[in-house]
């Protein structure tokens, strides 16, 4: 039996690499549904190749244009309802959520309610609604298989181990494009410089997050929820080579690490085939090519976003939602060259100072806070 898959965010960096993996194993997977925001040219090519039954296009106008371009065998649906529908279809076995941003939360919730297996790349789902997601996973007896490389690494290190035996999780960070820059020189960096990740080719939002180290902060929160561990037991270590994707230290001080070339197709394939492993068309890791693997502490002065994310998680409640919403708006403004690099942590700190966090019980409460934070940042930017 082929595994029937729905891919949310199929036109992006993770989405297209997921289709690369599926292309290599056509006998094992069937693409039942695809979803994206507006890139209908790429979707048209994907429909032609994979013949999905459903395609969700968030942008209604683009959805209408696409309907006229393709055969009626594929049903086109639009807006958030489209994403929800393809996350909870009857005839799918697995949902791979690789949309970018907090828009990914609601489809994940619906996938859980529909008791689907979930391969999660959309880290914002857990950053914003980790507590709610955790409750729903328990209630519907559903598991999330992480796609994010660090979390996939930890997940692999924990196979056959007991959670009580963990003493800490060690998340590796490349340090991003500015790892070796002096703080003084970071003030006027351009978005083009910030997009040049040293090891990974990724979408724009996560690339900027890697440059500010907010990506690692979001990943600390993601790890807290995925592995049910206190943030004080999650350490970040700068490892510029991105060969060790993360590690787990156990009570007896033994450390287990997962290594590999920086290639997202490996964690994606593992999430699609778990608990099995399949061959990959990749040369694999040649240790003789690496003279040294290095490690050092993060510099919180150069990269305040990492500290802000730890703070937001420690405060809890709606604070991580505010951190994330503010960050999404600020990253866009930085990409549009409307603010400077250090305005990102500056405004996140400001909004965290004025936000009075509360506990939440529903998606609707989170949505209200998310909208408030986005409006506050937009109004208060200099
Ligand atoms: N890229 C990577 O290597 C890694 C990414 N991740 C995480 O995976 C997620 C995706 O990242 P990445 O692939 O780099 O991002 P990209 O920007 O490359 O792709 C984003 C995808 O999401 C779609 N999308 C955006 N908004 C909506 C919406 N409102 N409705 C439907 N679809 C939408 C885009 O559609 P369209 O093309 O039409 O705009 C696109 O398909 C992020 O959460 C990121 O943090 C985690 C680890 C590694
Ligand atoms: C590939 C992946 O998982 C990214 O999240 C990556 O980790 C980004 O690199 P940084 O370590 O620079 O944040
Ligand atoms: Mn990652």
From TrEMBL:
It catalyses: 2-C-methyl-D-erythritol 4-phosphate + NADP(+) = 1-deoxy-D-xylulose 5-phosphate + NADPH + H(+). It comes from the Bacteria. Its cofactor is Mg(2+); Mn(2+). Residues 259-375 form the DXP reductoisomerase C-terminal domain. NADPH binds at residues 11-14, 39, 122, 124, 203. InterPro entries: DXP_reductoisomerase, DXP_reductoisomerase_C, DXP_reductoisomerase_N, DXPR_C, DXPR_C_sf, NAD(P)-bd_dom_sf. Its EC number is 1.1.1.267. Mn(2+) binds at residues 148, 150, 219. Residues 144-227 form the 1-deoxy-D-xylulose 5-phosphate reductoisomerase C-terminal domain. Keywords: Isomerase, Isoprene biosynthesis, Magnesium, Manganese, Metal-binding, NADP, Oxidoreductase. Pfam families: DXP_redisom_C, DXP_reductoisom, DXPR_C. Transmembrane segments: none annotated. This is 1-deoxy-D-xylulose 5-phosphate reductoisomerase.
